[in-house]
């Protein structure tokens, strides 16, 4: 009897998740400036300025992703085949661009504005570009002082990125430092 209840609950939960995915995807398609074919959103994804969000094809956004925005510079441009995982925070105040094939892991924070030394000061927008094929590991923090992450770079889990990252570099630590380089064939793939 227990197995029957277990499987019935699993089936109902799967149907509930599927319905949430379909509804959330339709709502985001209707509200965002542009959404490419095949892009899907789980329930619980939030964009503060949907009119300034452009997303390419075949992207996937997990539950809890938030894109915060304020001011005139706020924008979010995302290429094709980008995946943003659970509870990632994309600050778009200064403008954020994610190129094709970027992977943003769980609980990542990407910041595009700075307050200097006064937390109550007006935010200073800092535009940020993340190159094609970049992988940002779980719980990494990309601060506004980093304006560019080069194509194919890997940001280690828990890294605090304080400066620009060259293409193909593997960085880790706090503050993040280059600890290796990816093969050219990996970066091109």
TrEMBL record:
Example of a GO MF term: O-acyltransferase activity
Record's keyword terms, sorted: Transferase
Taxonomy, superkingdom: Bacteria
Alphabetized Pfam families for the sequence: Hexapep
Entry's family note: Belongs to the transferase hexapeptide repeat family.
Protein name: Transferase family hexapeptide repeat protein
